[in-house]
Structure formats: C-alpha cells, structure tokens
Amino acid sequence: MEHGLSKKERISSLKAIEHLIARGHYVGSGPLRCCWVIRNTGAAEAIEVAEKTGAAGVAEVIETAEKAGAAGVAGLAGKVEAADASKVTAAQGTPVHLNRIVVSVPKKMFRRAVKRNLLKRRIREAYRLQKQLLTGNGVDLMFVYKSKDIAPYSQISDCVAAILKQISSKLHKNEQI
Could you give the CA distance from residue 118 to residue 153 in angstroms, rounded to a whole number? Predict the structure, then answer.
C-alpha cells in the first residue's frame, strides 16, 4: 500500500473548495471537523435525493430524483456502468478514484503561522498513513481544526481514523441503496 500524498490528492482549486463547502456533509471527532462530498456529481445528487426522501432501491432513487428534478440524475440508470471510477475523470483532470483533501487551521485560533503549520502537518500525516480506511472513491475532504489547544499527534491520528471510518460507513450505507 502506497502511503504517499501526491499533488493530485490535494484540493487547490477555489472552485472545488466552494463546491465542497456548499454541498458537503459534516462529521466531527475531537478537535477536528470534516466536510466531505462525493466528486462524481450524478452519484452525489442521487445519494442526496435518496437521503432526503428515504428511498430504498435504485429504481426508487431514480424515480424520486426525476420527480425532484435533480439535474444529471434522470439518465442515472444508463450511467451506472459508465460511472466506473477507473474510467471517469473529473473536470479538473483528477482521476475520480483518488480521494482529495484540504486542511485548514483558522488564524482566529492560532495567530502564529508556526503553530498552524504544525497542526496542518500533523493532520496531513495522520490522513496519509490512514487513508486506506476511506473505502469510497472520488471523495473530497476538508479537515478543519476547531480547538484552541494544540493536540498531540496521537489524538489527531485517532480523530482522523474515527472520521474516515464514519465517512466510509456512510458511503457503504449509501451503496446499498
């Protein structure tokens, strides 16, 4: 298992970050909060519609999505095979099978850049070593540090693991729809 964190696995586009914040789901653990969204828009819209309506099956999801008027979901039945993560790429050229992250430590909490950078390095390292816990493909993540105290690496690592497991369980639950 490769433990690297390449440039393609990082979100740097302002547009991608705005999309993540606008359409993302939030989970938290300890001093960390994570916003996440599935990058494949058709699947993301189908999951969002299914969550709102409580749909049980794929046909019901498509029907409900068509009634709700979700753009890009009307032809979801024919696109299920085309949504193979190894073949589809996102608009920015990032392969859909890669999960991407961005880390934020607010200046309001830590005025000194040295402390902010220390926490960002710890969060990135914890994610890098545990990214295999995230079973979904094409997920954008934004980790935000929300405590006023500097947490040790062991606590940050445990929180990142808990967040990744929460997201994986939600993704796995939505795959069964």
Answer: 10
Angle 172-101-49 (CA atoms, 0-180°, nearest 5)? 40
DSSP-assigned beta bridge partners for residue 32: 29, 145
Distance CA 47, CA 61 (A): 8
Predicted TM-score (pTM) of this structure = 0.69
Task: Give dist(CA 3, CA 37) in Å, integer.
Answer: 22
DSSP states of the chain: ------GGGB---HHHHHHHHHH-EEEEETTEEEEEEESSHHHHHHHHHHHHHT--SHHHHHHHHHHHT-TTTTTHHHHTTTT-TTT-B-TTS-BTTS-EEEEE--TTT--SHHHHHHHHHHHHHHHHHHGGG---SSEEEEEEE--SS---HHHHHHHHHHHHHHHHHHHHHHHT-
The model's pLDDT over 100-154, given as tens digits with 9 standing for 90+, comes to: 999 999 999 999 999 999 999 999 999 999 999 988 788 999 999 999 999 999 9
To 5 degrees, how large is the angle CA 129–CA 134–CA 135? Answer: 130
